[in-house]
Amino acid sequence: MELPLILLVLGMVVIGAIAQRVAGLGFAMLISPFLVIALGAHQGVFLVNICGVVSSALIMPRVWKDIDWSMFRWLCSFSVFGSVAGALLAGGLPQAPLSIVVGAVVLAALLLSLILVRANVVVEGQIPKGTAGFLSGLTNSLAGVGGPAVSAYAVLARWPQRSFAATLQPFFVVTGLVTIMMKFIVTPDQLPPLPAWAWIAVAVFIWAGVLIGEQVQRVVTDRHARFFVLCFAFFGAITALVSGLRGL
């Protein structure tokens, strides 16, 4: 992989890590479409899965006291099945259709988030939790984007933001690890061909993004952070969708 492309990847993971630390999610939704365009659908999503695990693992100790472990167990128990199904589906899709899937999933998630902000519906019970977990695992494997399904559930269940953002970190770690394991089994040749130093740099840049995000969190409101993530992700999703359609 050429140096300019590696630098682009590093820049994207910093931005994603900042968003993840500020808003609790947004890493994948923000960078997945751009990495799909830069690396191709399979390698781009694979890299997003790996970076997402690293980012959440770094954030998790910092929000440990706010994690809702009961909610975590419910979501994870179903997300595993979604991750396996998504990895199997993604392995059978060519580059262009998978790029379309990535763009479409992110766009649908963004539109859903805008709609749910105005919703007065409240959901309860275990079925919505399980459904959210399964869909999160499925979309994480397919498109590298696992946050929207649980975000929708959080809005409808009136899950407090602090607990929600904290609980997502171990959830993303587990879901991401299952997804990565499945992809090593199903499509091991799709691991991005980064040199060893670049993988180390990815981890360092994610850590830097987390630290920067902690500083940004003190001066930027949640509303402004979400607005930035939405705008950036909309642009990336549309670009990935168009790129996939042109590749058909």
TrEMBL record:
Signal peptide location: none
Family: Belongs to the 4-toluene sulfonate uptake permease (TSUP) (TC 2.A.102) family.
Transport in keyword set: yes
Record keyword Nucleotide-binding present: no
Keywords (A to Z) from UniProt: Cell membrane, Membrane, Transmembrane, Transmembrane helix, Transport
Main location: membrane
Record's protein name: Probable membrane transporter protein
Species, as recorded: Paeniglutamicibacter gangotriensis Lz1y
GO terms under cellular component: plasma membrane
Topological relation to the membrane, as annotated: Multi-pass membrane protein
TM region(s), chain numbering: 35-59, 71-90, 96-117, 164-184, 196-213, 225-245
Location of the protein in the cell: Cell membrane
Listed InterPro entries: TM_pro_TauE-like, TSUP
